[in-house]
TrEMBL record:
One of its GO terms (molecular function) is zinc ion transmembrane transporter activity. The lineage of its organism: Bacteria, Pseudomonadati, Pseudomonadota, Gammaproteobacteria, Pasteurellales. InterPro entries: Cation_efflux, Cation_efflux_TM, Cation_efflux_TMD_sf, CDF/SLC30A. This is Cation transporter. PANTHER family: CATION EFFLUX PROTEIN/ ZINC TRANSPORTER, RE54080P-RELATED. One of its GO terms (cellular component) is plasma membrane.
Length: 208
């Protein structure tokens, strides 16, 4: 349905708003900082879920950089960027999945205290970013992909904290591995959603 009022037109151009650009810069800085924190602490704690989450933070940082680059470009370029981001997220998800399967048979008991502490820190960071991005979640595929990344991160961090508690009470590595499986599923399912949305946008453009 074509735009017939100022509200509709404004919604189409939300990706150009200074507020959205500012939020993307904040999200980029927060995510790259947490990538460094989690990869160091994930190695130190021997936690697959923390390492998985650190890669997710790195992927999100790259996604925010791409989003900032393509903001002023035409919808076709934004849709192609979303397609690239979707494929990247899916690749990270598959990497996490295969790493977790390997660790299932060869991994050691992680440090639950470090897992929980870093998980709480990452949770606060991601909830804040997700809250900032919430009002921009209904834009094009590029904006949708940014929102889904932040939403998945917040859910993943809750799971990491829960895994740390479960490792403490069970003295087992399996809660950590189960959370890593969940993170892999979230990454792959979000990637499918983004790719489908971007594909629909590209098909719409080609029919103009």
């Amino acid at each position: 349905m074509p735009c017939c009022n100022n509200s509709c037109a404004s919604n189409q151009n939300r990706h150009l708003s200074p507020q959205y650009k500012k939020v993307l810069w904040i999200a980029l800085i927060v995510n790259f900082t947490m990538f460094i924190v989690e990869i160091v602490m994930g190695i130190s704690a021997g936690s697959v879920s923390l390492l998985s989450d650190s890669l997710d933070f790195l992927g999100d940082s790259a996604n925010y950089v791409i989003s900032l680059i393509v903001l002023p470009m035409a919808l076709s370029w934004r849709a192609k960027a979303s397609m690239l981001k979707g494929l990247t997220m899916g690749s990270f998800g598959l990497f996490i999945l295969f790493t977790t399967i390997y660790q299932w048979f060869n991994g050691k008991l992680p440090d639950y205290a470090q897992m929980s502490a870093v998980g709480v820190l990452a949770l606060f960071a991601n909830v804040w970013v997700a809250w900032l991005l919430y009002r921009f979640r209904d834009g094009d595929s590029n904006m949708q992909s940014v929102w889904l990344c932040s939403r998945n991160d917040a859910i993943g961090n809750l799971a990491v904290v829960g895994a740390g508690v479960a490792v403490y009470f069970t003295n087992s590595k399996y809660p950590d591995l189960l959370v890593a499986f969940v993170l892999a599923f979230l990454a792959i399912s979000a990637a499918v959603t983004i790719i489908r949305q971007a594909w629909r946008e590209l098909k719409t453009i080609s029919n103009w």
